[in-house]
Amino acid sequence: MEVPSPLEASANVAILASVYLARRNSVHTWWTGMAAVVLFALFFYDLKLYADVVLQVFFFGTCVYGWWAWTRGGAGGEELPISTLSPRQRLAALGAIAAAVLFFGTVFSRFTDAALPYPDSFILGGSVVAQLLMMRRIRDHWPIWIAVDVVAVIVYATKGAFLTAGVYAVLLALCVQGILEWRRLYAAQGVAPAELVSTPSGAA
After folding, report:
1. What is the span of the domain harbouring residue 82?
2. Could you tell me if 183 and 28 are in contact, meaning their C-beta atoms sit under 8 angstroms apart?
3. What membrane topology is annotated for this entry (predicted)?
C-alpha cells in the first residue's frame, strides 16, 4: 500500500477537526475548514479529480461566509439559530443535486480526462447543497453529507487514496452523530420549524 503523502495527511487532519467541530455546533468549524479545503484542492488536482478541485474553491468562499453568518447572521446581528427545511425545500435540494450530477458529470466526461466523472460530480453537487445549508445552520445538511461521504469513500479508495477514504468513513460516523446532536439542540431552542425557515434571519 502506498504511503500517504504529507499533503494528504495534513488535509485529512484538518477536515476531521472541522467536521468534529461542526458536530459540536462550534463556529471554529469554519477556519479549520478553510485550512482543509486549501490542502485538499492541491491534493485532488494531483489525482485529476477536477470536480473536487472546483468544490474546494467553492468551500473556501462558503467557509468565510459561514463564519460570519453563524456569529452575526441572526436577527439583529445575533448568533444564527438552527433551523430546518420544509418538505418542498427538501425536494428542491435533491433536484439541485441531481442537476449538478448530470451537468458536471457530462462536462467532465466529455471534455476532460477526469476519473469517475459522475460519482465525483455527485460529491460536488451534494457537497455544494450541504454546504449552503450548513452555512445557514439548517440541520438538513447532515443527511446529505452522509450520502456524499458514502460515495467519497468508494471514489477515493478506487483512486488509491486509502487514507482519505478511511477518513471519510470516520466523517460518516461523525455526520450520524451530528444528526442526533443537532436534533437535540434544535429541540432545545423551542422554536417551530415554520417560524425559522420563513425568514432569512432565522435560517441556519
Report:
1. 6-165
2. no
3. Multi-pass membrane protein
In a domain, 186, yes or no: no
Q: What angle do CA 47, 51, 55 make, to 5 degrees?
A: 110
Residue 17 CB partners (closer than 8 Å, separation 6+): 32, 36
Grid cell 425536494 is found at: 91
In-domain check, residue 202: no
DSSP string, 78-99: -PPPPB---HHHHHHHHHHHHH
User: Given this model, what pLDDT does residue 191 score?
Assistant: 54
Residue 1 CB coordination number (10 Å): 6
- Give the number of domains in the chain: 1
Three-class SS of 28-70: CHHHHHHHHHHHHHHHHHHCCCHHHHHHHHHHHHHHHHHHHHH
- pLDDT value of residue 58: 86
Taking a C-beta distance cutoff of 8 angstroms, is the pair 183, 175 a contact? no
Number of CB atoms found within 10 A of residue 112's CB: 12
Could you tell me if residue 1 is inside a domain?
no
Sign for the pseudo-dihedral over CA of 194, 200, 201, 203: positive
